[in-house]
Amino acid sequence: MRQHVMLSALVLLSGCGAAISDRPCPRVTEFPAELQRQAVVELASAPALARMMDAMAADRAFNRAICQR
Questions:
Q1: Which pLDDT value is given to residue 11?
Q2: Residue with more model confidence, 17 or 63
Q3: Which helix (H) or strand (E) holds 18?
Q4: Span 36-63, mean pLDDT?
Q5: With CB atoms counted within 10 Å of each terminal CB, which end of the chain scores lower, N or C?
Q6: CB-based contacts of 49: which residues, under 8 Å, 6+ apart?
Q7: Helix, strand or coil, per DSSP, at residue 17
Q8: Full-prediction pTM beyond 0.70?
Q9: Cα–Cα distance measured from residue 36 to residue 30, given in angstroms and rounded to the nearest whole number
Q10: Cβ-Cβ contacts under 8 Å for 52 (sequence gap 6 or more)
């Protein structure tokens, strides 16, 4: 569980770099389906983290929509 919390914190903080403002579209990292399934199971016991991840998912969907390649 501790490793999951650390990974989640890294994901949340990965967008804090100064160079992001230089790019018109933020990077959207894709995760393998198995990793996503594992995260869903783990988030069931962490409701606050689940809410944060839901908000990030909405941001990712928005970024995909406006930054289509």
A1: 58
A2: 63
A3: none
A4: 90
A5: C
A6: 5, 8, 43
A7: coil
A8: no
A9: 10
A10: 8, 12
- pLDDT for 45: 92
Match 């962490």 to its residue by tokens: 46
CA distances from 51 to 37, 48, 55 (A): 16, 5, 6
Per this entry, what is the length of the chain?
69
Ramachandran quadrant class, 40 (left: phi over 0; alpha: psi -120 to 50; beta: rest): alpha
Burial track 8-39 (b if 16+ CB lie within 10 A, e otherwise): beeeeeeeeeeeeeeeeeeeeeeeeeeeeeeb
HEC string for 20-69: HHHCCCCCCCCCCHHHHHHHHHHHCCCHHHHHHHHHHHHHHHHHHHHCCC
Query: Is a pLDDT exceeding 80 seen at residue 8?
Result: no
